[in-house]
Amino acid sequence: xxxxxxxxxxxxxxxxxxxxxxxxxxxxxxxxxxxxxxxxxxxxxxxxxxxxxxxxxxxxxxxxxxxxxxxxxxxxxxxxxxxxxxxxxxxxxxxxxxxxxxxxxxxxxxxxxxxxxxxxxxxxxxxxxxxxxxxxxxxxxxxxxxxxxxxxxxxxxxxxxxxxxxxxxxxxxxxxxxxxxxxxxxxxxxxxxxxxxxxxxxxxxxxxxxxxxxxxxxxxxxxxxxxxxxxxxxxxxxxxxxxxxxxxxxxxxxxxxxxxxxxxxxxxxxxxxxxxxxxxxxxxxxxxxxxxxxxxxxxxxxxxxxxxxxxxxxxxxxxxxxxxxxxxxxxxxxxxxxxxxxxxxxxxxxxxxxxxxxxxxxxxxxxxxxxxxxxxxxxxxxxxxxxxxxxxxxxxxxxxxxxxxxxxxxxxxxxxxxxxxxxxxxxxxxxxxxxxxxxxxxxxxxxxxxxxxxxxxxxxxxxxxxxxxxxxxxxxxxxxxxxxxxxxxxxxxxxxxxxxxxxxxxxxxxxxxxxxxxxxxxxxxxxxxxxxxxxxxxxxxxxxxxxxxxxxxxxxxxxxxxxxxxxxxxxxxxxxxxxxxxxxxxxxxxxxxxxxxxxxxxxxxxxxxxxxxxxxxxxxxxxxxxxxxxxxxxxxxxxxxxxxxxxxxxxxxxxxxxxxxxxxxxxxxxxxxxxxxxxxxxxxxxxxxxxxxxxxxxxxxxxxxxxxxxxxxxxxxxxxxxxxxxxxxxxxxxxxxxxxxxxxxxxxxxxxxxxxxxxxxxxxxxxxxxxxxxxxxxxxxxxxxxxxxxxxxxxxxxxxxxxxxxxxxxxxxxxxxxxxxxxxxxxxxxxxxxxxxxxxxxxxxxxxxxxxxxxxxxxxxxxxxxxxxxxxxxxxxxxxxxxxxxxxxxxxxxxxxxxxxxxxxxxxxxxxxxxxxxxxxxxxxxxxxxxxxxxxxxxxxxxxxxxxxxxxxxxxxxxxxxxxxxxxxxxxxxxxxxxxxxxxxxxxxxxxx
Length: 993
Ligand SMILES: [Zn+2]
Hints:
Elements: H1 8-31, H2 38-65, H3 67-74, E1 82-85, E2 93-96, H4 111-132, H5 167-175, H6 190-207, H7 214-221, H8 231-238, E3 241-249, H9 261-269, H10 272-275, H11 280-290, E4 301-305, H12 312-327, E5 330-335, H13 339-346, E6 356-357, E7 371-375, H14 376-388, H15 390-393, E8 396-401, H16 409-429, E9 435-440, H17 450-457, E10 467-469, E11 478-485, H18 502-512, E12 517-520, H19 527-533, E13 537-538, E14 541-542, E15 556-561, H20 569-573, E16 586-592, H21 597-608, H22 610-615, E17 619-620, H23 627-640, E18 643-644, H24 645-652, H25 656-668, E19 672-680, E20 686-694, E21 712-717, E22 723-729, H26 734-737, E23 743-746, E24 749-753, H27 761-767, E25 769-774, E26 780-794, E27 801-803, E28 808-829, E29 835-837, E30 841-847, E31 851-860, H28 862-865, H29 871-886, E32 887-888, E33 894-904, E34 907-916, H30 924-929, H31 932-948, H32 964-968, H33 971-974, H34 980-991
Parallel strand pairs: 4-9, 4-10, 5-7, 5-8, 6-7, 8-9, 11-16, 12-15, 15-16, 17-32, 21-25
Antiparallel strand pairs: 1-2, 3-11, 13-14, 18-20, 19-20, 21-22, 23-24, 24-25, 26-28, 27-28, 28-29, 28-30, 28-31, 31-34, 33-34
Bound molecules: zinc ion (ZN).
Residues 949, 951, 956-957, 959-960 line the site of zinc ion.
InterPro entries: MZB
Transmembrane segments: 6-28, 40-60, 113-133, 161-178, 190-208
Keywords: Membrane, Transmembrane, Transmembrane helix
């Protein structure tokens, strides 16, 4: 058969190889997330055709120049006798083909088939190597050899044009078809024939290297989002949103690559730093911290100030590995919340998931991991164990504080004590070479008060050379849109469940339009419900699969903006899509969080003047030690390690006035033991001091959002009657954070408080427990309360100060706060996200406990308030919302209330009172009192907001005074006696303008 038709052999070989190639192509396309096998085939083409063509050309040239050299074995190809290489300096290689001609003169073997087979063998070898060892991931701007072949060259994303390139090889293949291949001179054509054949096969594979759904998959990989700008907004409009484009920000110049040798070494060792375009300052800072002269230049601590997502995670991953490789120690990463989610984002840049350990409270730490990631609450619980376990403590080589600015108010006050406790232990018993790294945003402008903030919160004294400022850049142009659920919302798609939350509806629209989207779930969204929603299919994929893991990988972003985020937008958004190369515009859809219409007003200002908007900063409040918090952490610190009084003052920088009474009280209650100690100080001078150690057998600290020790448990009563502790709260704040029928979230799940068994918080404190149940009601609730102040005195440590030509003055007061809660107001999203507010739902009045606190009284002149009976209540409602945006405290940590005829000492005063809603106060009032300019600005913002509201209604509208929290604020506001007109009138009179 072969003898009859020798030309069949090459054709069969060609057909088999082509079938194999197409089979492999289909398998690769199916497996790759990008649905694209071009990277494989272009590499195969380059590595097969390149060397083979060189060899064929070389052999051909030899024969042209002098056929004799050919016969001396200088050519590397098969001939009729086999392969014989006899190069001068190498041992001869001799692969003989069995004699082609038998003794009877008949052909026995076909050496030309060997020659024909070589290109196929080389091709197959390259192909298999590439399949087993895929090409290393390259930065998209690095050229890949032959990649141009997989371009589309004007063929609208099709590679079929490559088929045209097949014409010459196929013509030659047919022209030289066997039997020419095996006969006479044409024998030499076998090698080029084989070469042309594999080139043709590879080209065919390239032409079909793009899977049918590659377009969507490419967007998912973020390489090139589809279509013209504006499409994204159109897609959101199509889903029923009113889309207002607030601003478009151009991209800035790309950062130059670092020239420092240390940073370059890191870039070479961890190429993802370059690929993901991590800010060069971050790489240099890490290189510097672990470099040979780290301690000479500055200490072992670094404070890094950068916009969000500038590459902190990647840089941190490198720091963790350097700690592991160079110091052979572990990194302790402390995050504000959700350590598991943080670890999931960090893990891709570490060698494997086992590199991270997530310690849990009261469970021993696994010391084999590279990094321990935990939240501050867990750290607080773990510190006692660490204190008892010097070996574990000595394993910590790097302490990382992530997102320093996320701590505010009560959490900041607890954080401060915690960071100092850890530092004290590490100094005494930790590793010599231990380092620390703190990440925070770059808070420009002294209004932010950032220097005072970090120096209060952290135990480090950063020198200028230890502070690293990452330049503000925008890798891509950004378009910021405000999304509002429109009245013309489409009816819900019957195939897909109604999301019930506008952010989910926006997310689905963005993904369906082919944009790889980053989704930051709003804090009030139930994550179980959101998880169910994300399982639905959009364009053949589960929605959850098409989310970007990180803002740096996202072509678009959906974000709910509340009081805490709105002034941080510049930092939050600047680095969107950083790791992507081709991104025409990073699209951001903002949804204003319900509850604070001032946020919505500010976003409108972003549209008017982005420059001015981005200059505004939020004032950071570090919180100050108040006796209950000092007491709690002092007990813990003394359990971890005994101390002398001077040492306590030194490490914690507590004032004697606060520390001494607490020590006295604890000693009297036999919770700590005292003794006199004598020791030599650093100058070898004998000192006598009092030493303290804890004698409390068991002490369990409260959670970090509480201040006291006698806490009330909020217990989940499940359907089967099982009970689970959800959280613990200060009883003084029970009506504020756990009022009856409140809907709240813990760890992303929604719960509703049960009606109280008593009508006073005093009874609840005695019982020590409140119950709640799981709910899937997406309602938001606000309590209707009536605040009362008693025993109010002017704080004589502060002077009264006049603002603005004496029309207004302020004075710090000490007072006892209590409130009566009479009902709630609920807000529920309707279909496609529009919100509907309920009428107040009344309940039996509940009395809070009274607690002492600090306040700031802004006195108004009586004549300014004449004929404006609703002004004070209206200003208070609006100022509370302005304050929540411009001052960094939780919204339930502060109250602005109207005081009419308030008895202060022996006088009656009228004005506004800004109150610290934590027992004893957390320093918020001091922070406000220190900054007259801030107060004046807050009042001016309130005036402008109310004056500029488009409603022009005397009573205001939901975008100004008629928001749920403003209405719920007092009985006065529930009865609809708020007046925008009077508020503006009085503020104008007081402030001018
Ligand atoms: Zn209005």
